[in-house]
Amino acid sequence: MNIKIDSELTFTRLQSINPVEIIEHMSDPRLEEHMPLLTFKWDTEAVTQFIAVKEAHWQRDGLGHWAILEIGSYVGWGGFQLEGDEWDFGLVLKPSSFGLGGRITKKALEFAKADERIAFVTFLLPTSRTRTAALTKLGATFVGEVKYGGATFRKFRLIIS
What is the pLDDT of residues 87-103, one digit of tens each? Predict the structure, then answer.
């Protein structure tokens, strides 16, 4: 399943990406600074488990995380994950593609607006992410700090319906 977002961006399933690309991406030390849950070594087994978990969300919820392509090349992954009764949006880009974050987020939010199940989206940012102007500009509001997987995150909510 490929979803052409614009002339350059495509959302596709993670299982269509060569696992070596995901391993290289998730092993980049620059990601560790803002990913407190990144506490293990990425290898073939880790990618296999990661994709299985993300595919299970698709099966259970009908929505999940995509691999993101720019002009056919893998630039990262992200999407929506149902956490309790809230749809959380996450995005993990290769450092060379960090500049695409705003554009990808806007396109993903357009996708969410078309889904009648999603009234609002949450964002969990690690405390190391001090710049939140982009979320504020979108209209997201700070909810408070939450613990997830043993780490502290700053939670934001964006009403989209």
Answer: 999 999 999 999 999 99
Cβ-defined contacts of 126-135 (< 8 Å, 24+): 126/34, 126/35, 126/36, 126/151, 126/152, 126/153, 126/154, 127/152, 127/153, 127/154, 128/33, 128/34, 128/36, 129/34, 129/154, 132/156, 134/101, 134/102, 134/105
Q: How confident is the model at residue 132 (pLDDT cuts 50, 70, 90)?
A: confident
Please give the backbone phi and psi of residue 140, each rounded to the nearest 5 degrees, phi first.
Answer: -75, 145
Structure letter (DSSP) for residue 148: E
pLDDT of residue 51: 97
Residue entry with tokens 């009908």: 62
CB-based contact 68:93 (threshold 8 Å):
yes
